Amino acid sequence: MKSITIKGSERESVGKKATKALRNARxxxxxxxxxxxxxxxxxxxxxxxxxxxxxxxxxxxxxxxxGKVRAIMQDIQFHPVTDKILHIDFYxxxxxxxxxxxxxxxxxxxxxxxxxxxxxxxxxxxxxxxxLPDKLPDFFDVDISKLKIGDNITIESLLSxxxxxxxxxxxxxxxxxxxxxxxxxDEDEELEGEEGAAEGAETAAEGAETxxxxxxxxxxx
Length: 221
Description:
Strand content: 35-45%
Mean pLDDT: 85
Strand order of the largest sheet: 1-5-6-7-3-4-2
Helix content: 10-25%
CATH architecture of the largest domain: Beta Barrel
Oligomer: single chain
Low-confidence stretches: 210-221
Number of strands: 14
Number of helices: 4
Shape: elongated
Largest sheet: 7 strands, mixed
Order of helices and strands: EEHEEHEEEEHEEEEEEH
Number of domains: 2
CATH class of the largest domain: Mainly Beta
């Protein structure tokens, strides 16, 4: 998984007054849990742009000058009016200790069922998994190029020995549901329909070349 480096400074005071002063200086108070003791630090708001405002999942290297701490973002608080970042909680990573993290799902391809009038329902955009830090995937890539109307993809098809997915195997990730105007066809019928349409076009073209008598033509008496 890709990592983002956050350069910050360790906080000497964690009281309300000090926290307010940090926010007024456009810095975000943060804390890293999971180690021997909580690590309090602060960093510029812009330092979190690529971590917070993205659909991708990342690990973090907190750089405080004297060393780097590997972590993942666990919780974030925003101001209810301005949406400014108020506080971020991180959890420290260790090579031999599993961690729980939400991993985004990406859909690949175009579903034939949608072309036939079905409706694509993206049920789970993120999946919670448990894994060692080095086994954390960047995304779950889900191929929907064979989904017909009524088909779905469940957690079962995404299982791996590298991590544990913390959802039931039968949970639906994405599916194509029918609509009133939808046409349910299989691949053979689809091919036959295309061939029939081609033959029909050829017949129509031949018919157009053969003149036919009409009511406005000469009548034979």
